[in-house]
Amino acid sequence: MGSSKSPSSPPVAASSPPTAPVEAGTYGEEAAPITVDPDFETVEDQGDGDSALGYSESSTASLSSSILQYREIHGRTYQNFKEAEYWAPNDDKQNDGLDLHHHMMFLIHNNSLFRSPVDDPDAVLDVGTGTGIWALDCADQFPGAEVIGTDLSPIQPTWTPPNCRFELDDASLDWTFASDKFDLIHLRFLIGSIENWPKLYRQAYRCLKPGGWLEHTDFTIRIASDDGSVNTEDPAHPYAIWNRIFAEAGEKTGRTFLVSDKGKNAEWMREAGFPGPFNVEHYKLPLGTWPKDKKWKEVGAFNRQSCLEGLEGYVLYLAVKVLGWQFEEVQVLVSKMRSALGNPNYHAYYGCSTVWTQKPLDG
Fold first, then answer.
1. How far apart are CA 203 and CA 135, in angstroms?
2. Which of 10, 184, 195, 337 is at 20 to 30 A from 239, Cα to Cα?
3. Ranges of Low complexity compositional bias (predicted)?
């Protein structure tokens, strides 16, 4: 069962930037700057690499051949689930980057799969499970728990531990899971894919046991720097162009990429019925090995490599199908982004936040 510990924020390792719990309605404290390694720019080789480095029938849909007939855009494949729209590819090239992100978040969360104080869950739901790696690790850690991962694409392993299963499902539709079922509902990296966040969180509230926990981790997507090494005020800078694409595409599709900006997700959780408190941790995810701190240097290595592998996939659908770019224009931007990611003079990062809150025991 889920723990009834106080919902206050767990300790953060000494190497992590300081964070603080915040209530919805406040912007929260931005993660502290990451100190640049003074020896970093003397490293000669800053190339693309870095040495640091079975389905059940869904509650809402059954596996069909039409879902396996993925849509293709310029050689990249995308999910084909009913009328759902998701902007990232589901092919192996993109999925390798997702797995790197999983390991990166494991490091950021101090070698933990989640921040919620759940000790011995009976049932866990991973919404938007992707490759399923988080759900598989959770099932291994809690062999007595039922772990379910849902996603639009059947890209997860066919072999799973006996206590883990994957289901095809669109999380934005009405959930058919039983009420008061889960001790933990985990969401990660769903930016740009949900039209109605309060509705999604209401579904989670209903399906959580009294005393259960909702946890959501997502990016802020905007690339920046603290020391002025990246000038995103220059509209021609590749990072500035990158930032604009996601902001404009989210506005045009009605599926915002600014989910965690200024406490929006905590506000939506409150609107959905969660009374708070809302525990929030903010992180700055370095793009490269420029940080001085060993932990954030390793995070930066994984982050840059993940981004290098996923660049085209991140932007192709949004630029071509949503904003009307030509494919050749996308390739030019991807090339410029690769150069920027390999530039040791850029101390760039983008933001990320984790929010966790509890359904009341009398809920």
1. 19
2. 195
3. 1-17
